[in-house]
Design brief:
Helix content: over 70%
Order of helices and strands: HHHH
Radius of gyration: 23 Å
Structural class: mainly alpha
Strand content: under 5%
Length: 100
């Protein structure tokens, strides 16, 4: 809408969200392990701790992916809407070029 290229800002935001998600995921996953009684390297794993490790390494990330999947599923753009947006942008570009 502004007519200014904003791709760099979008990519920066995407990179921030990705890195923040990785940091939060590690923090949350390690919190699950600590809550289960995992003390660190060299520890003989009890059954409960081993189950928590499996949960933190497999099911937890899969469950956390449900949020962005739901967001993408409901994203209100399809092929037709994308074509409408492209046509509007081309029309705006043509009008700007004719006025310059």
């Amino acid at each position: 809408q502004s007519g200014i290229q904003q791709t760099g800002g979008h990519m920066a935001f995407l990179a921030f969200v990705f890195k923040a998600g990785m940091g939060f995921g590690a923090f949350f996953g390690l919190g699950v392990l600590q809550a289960a009684g995992y003390l660190g390297m060299g520890q003989a794993l009890s059954t409960d701790v081993a189950q928590s490790v499996r949960f933190a390494a497999s099911w937890l990330p899969a469950l956390m992916l449900l949020v962005p999947i739901a967001m993408m599923w409901r994203y209100p753009i399809d092929t037709q809407r994308h074509a409408e947006i492209r046509n509007a942008l081309e029309a705006r570009r043509g009008a700007a070029a004719a006025g310059a």
